[in-house]
């Protein structure tokens, strides 16, 4: 997965100057999307290399000053695209929050405005106002999960567009709840800041806010999201101690024969755990002295999902063996899938329904959490049924179950790269008929 914890701001138009930050996305855009690389946005140095997470409070965070008025007065640009990663949490019912704004539109002025109007509904609204006209789209976005959003619009002649195109995770949103434009008298306040929040900060996290001075095509948007998602890149970093081997200082010399032999032997032991050719590479060896040989290495897999890691973790953690060698487990961390199982609880809410809850997954190095898969079955059967919880809320109600029946229920967190480790099952029985 290409998206990670860093937060970066970029602009596809040269109106904002600033320090040149990480250029991975700009380089990729130039090579894969046919876009010209231009100057990045300014951002506070404290944000460099990290996502921005805000948890409410007064004020806003200024990302940039829109000196050319491309977002503050969108009619100035014939074609525009705005992209960002967003993870948000709703507030109380009836409470609104602004995520991104330009030109003080959060206060009724011209510009752009991304906000949630009502905390009781997982719906976001994007509004663009310019030239005596405003266009609004409202769409569903689950809370507490990362979503990639893209908004594009094109000026028609000297007037404002009649439509805004919205993409979620690389696909056009076709079931817009609101899609309309209006003419009217728009106040013209002298503001051109681009901000996170408005008079108050939202409860949200942001990553890769990007603006292009052209309209991305459907093909380009899909390709950008595929870039973020990436190909199979699952790998796990392992630290352990070979309890039967005495440390020798030659192991700290990468070019030494002892280093090469020990590295090759460990790679052979790792691959011996797999019947299929599942391992792409074993690399990044680092040895240190724990009286016995301590080692850190990286295992790269060809496939995705925890199922790829399971034989390795089972051997090292459960049996304290690596192939034919006795080991002591130190640490293991995967980059794109969850290795730690969820803690699941369940109770019956009626004779035909059960409420399942779980602890929220911890952070990943690079993976993007996208939901929880709930697996349930009759306690006396191995046939499993699957339900998907993609709202990010750690609770789900299973409905249309058999009355007064025992069920075994488990869950596993999902990322864009695959399924995480399944939890232990819990047993629960639906209520008696009529209860």
What is the end-to-end distance?
47 Å
Shape: globular
Average pLDDT for all residues = 82
Query: How many strands appear in the DSSP assignment?
Result: 27
- Percentage of β-strand residues: 35-45%
Q: Helix/strand/pairing class, anyone?
A: mainly beta
- Subunit arrangement of the protein: single chain
Q: In this structure, how is the largest beta sheet organized? A: 7 strands, mixed
Topology:
Elements: E1 9-12, H1 24-33, E2 52-55, E3 61-65, E4 79-88, E5 97-102, E6 111-116, E7 123-130, E8 133-140, E9 147-154, E10 165-168, E11 171-172, E12 178-183, E13 193-196, E14 203-212, H2 218-229, E15 235-246, H3 257-271, E16 279-290, E17 292-301, H4 306-318, E18 321-322, E19 325-334, E20 344-348, E21 354-358, E22 369-378, E23 385-389, E24 395-398, E25 406-415, E26 418-419, E27 426-429
Helix pairs in contact: 1-2
């Amino acid at each position: 997965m290409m998206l990670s914890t860093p937060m970066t701001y970029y602009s596809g138009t040269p109106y904002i100057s600033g320090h040149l930050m990480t250029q991975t996305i700009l380089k990729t855009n130039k090579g894969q999307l046919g876009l010209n690389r231009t100057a990045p946005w300014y951002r506070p140095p404290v944000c460099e290399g990290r996502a921005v997470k805000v948890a409410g409070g007064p004020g806003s965070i200024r990302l940039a000053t829109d000196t050319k008025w491309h977002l503050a007065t969108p009619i100035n640009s014939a074609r525009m695209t705005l992209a960002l990663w967003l993870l948000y949490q709703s507030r109380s019912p009836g409470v609104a929050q602004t995520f991104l704004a330009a030109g003080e539109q959060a206060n009724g002025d011209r510009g752009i405005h991304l906000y949630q109007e009502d905390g009781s509904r997982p719906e976001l609204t994007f509004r663009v106002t310019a030239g005596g006209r405003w266009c609004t789209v409202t769409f569903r976005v689950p809370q507490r999960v990362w979503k990639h959003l893209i908004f594009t619009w094109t000026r028609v002649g000297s007037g404002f567009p009649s439509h805004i195109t919205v993409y979620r995770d690389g696909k056009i949103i076709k079931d817009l709840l609101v899609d309309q434009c209006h003419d009217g008298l728009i106040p013209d306040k002298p503001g051109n800041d681009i901000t996170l929040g408005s008079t108050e900060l939202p409860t949200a996290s942001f990553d890769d806010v990007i603006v292009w001075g052209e309209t991305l095509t459907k093909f380009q948007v899909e390709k950008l999201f595929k870039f973020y998602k990436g190909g199979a890149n699952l790998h796990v970093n392992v630290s352990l101690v070979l309890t039967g081997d005495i440390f020798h200082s030659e192991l700290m010399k990468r070019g030494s024969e002892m280093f090469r032999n020990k590295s090759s032997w460990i790679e052979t032991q790792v691959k011996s755990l797999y019947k299929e050719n599942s391992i792409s590479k074993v690399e990044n060896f680092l040895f240190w002295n724990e009286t016995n040989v301590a080692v850190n290495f990286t295992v790269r897999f060809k496939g995705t999902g925890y199922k790829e890691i399971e034989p390795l973790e089972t051997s090292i953690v459960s049996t304290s063996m690596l192939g034919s060698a006795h080991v002591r487990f130190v640490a293991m961390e995967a980059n794109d899938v969850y290795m730690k199982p969820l803690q699941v609880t369940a109770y019956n809410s009626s004779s035909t329904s059960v409420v399942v809850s779980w602890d929220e997954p911890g952070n990943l190095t690079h993976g993007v959490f996208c939901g929880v898969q709930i697996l349930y079955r009759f306690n006396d059967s191995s046939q499993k049924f699957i339900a998907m919880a993609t709202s990010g809320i750690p609770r789900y109600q299973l409905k249309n179950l058999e009355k007064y029946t025992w069920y075994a229920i488990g869950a596993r967190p999902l990322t864009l790269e695959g399924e995480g480790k399944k939890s232990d099952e819990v047993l629960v029985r639906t209520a008696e008929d009529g209860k």
